[in-house]
């Protein structure tokens, strides 16, 4: 499936603007992460774009979020490797532990977008262009800040050979490229 068709599919299931923005942010982070790790950027970006396709259907229920996505994406003919990574971004629903690079990348990549967004929104002008990687790392250590962001998922960047400093910089720079698309 090409990117345009994937985006149309996403919009069929996701109506909330903030979830579209999260999907776009996850897409660009996964794209740039794939480039950094010499992986397939189109495949990884597609996983980032579609990873939450069932979040509104399941009301983000940890026990079902991901399972409906499998059904939707199989019906659409999405590549099995992408479906598996999407299924594994929520270990609760999958009932398994992540083990593959692609799975760790998606879990870390989509999660850090939430921390970056929350960090941006505490800045006076709420513009991602002024956020620094060290601010992301600092906020990462503040457990009460964006408390719903799973720091363990973000730290899976280490399983990819990246430090949190490197990962925060990569993800932040990726999201800055599409600030106008994600409202930051």
Tally of individual domains: 1
Q: Please give the CATH architecture.
A: Orthogonal Bundle
Termini distance?
28 Å
Based on Cα principal axes, name the global outline: globular
Spatial extent as radius of gyration: 15 Å
Q: Tally the helices: what do you get?
A: 11
The secondary-structure element order is: HHHHHHHHHHH
Give the class-level CATH name: Mainly Alpha
Number of strands: 0
Sheet bearing the most strands, described?
A: none
Q: Mean pLDDT, nearest integer?
A: 95
In terms of structural class, how would the helical and strand content be classed?
Answer: mainly alpha
| Helix content percent band | 55-70%
CATH topology: Hypothetical protein af1432
Q: Could you explain how this protein is built, in words?
A:
- The chain is mainly α and 184 residues long.
- The chain has one domain: Orthogonal Bundle (Hypothetical protein af1432).
- The chain is built from eleven helices and no strands.
- Helix 1 packs parallel to helix 3, helix 2 runs antiparallel to helix 3 and helix 4 packs antiparallel against helix 5.
- It is globular.
Concise synopsis of the structure shown:
By secondary structure, this protein is mainly α.
């Amino acid at each position: 499936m090409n990117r345009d068709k994937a985006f149309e599919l996403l919009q069929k299931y996701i109506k909330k603007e903030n979830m579209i923005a999260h999907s776009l942010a996850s897409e660009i982070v996964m794209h740039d992460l794939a480039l950094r790790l010499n992986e397939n950027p189109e495949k990884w970006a597609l996983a980032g774009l579609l990873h939450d396709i069932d979040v509104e259907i399941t009301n983000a229920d940890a026990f079902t979020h991901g399972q409906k996505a499998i059904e939707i994406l199989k019906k659409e003919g999405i590549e099995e490797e992408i479906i598996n990574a999407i299924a594994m971004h929520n270990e609760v629903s999958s009932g398994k532990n992540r083990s593959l690079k692609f799975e760790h990348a998606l879990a870390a990549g989509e999660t850090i977008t939430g921390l970056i967004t929350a960090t941006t929104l505490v800045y006076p002008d709420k513009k991602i262009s002024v956020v620094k990687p060290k601010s992301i790392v600092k906020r990462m250590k503040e457990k009460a800040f964006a408390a719903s962001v799973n720091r363990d998922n973000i730290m899976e960047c280490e399983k990819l050979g990246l430090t949190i400093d490197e990962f925060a910089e990569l993800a932040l720079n990726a999201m800055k490229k599409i600030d106008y698309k994600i409202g930051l």
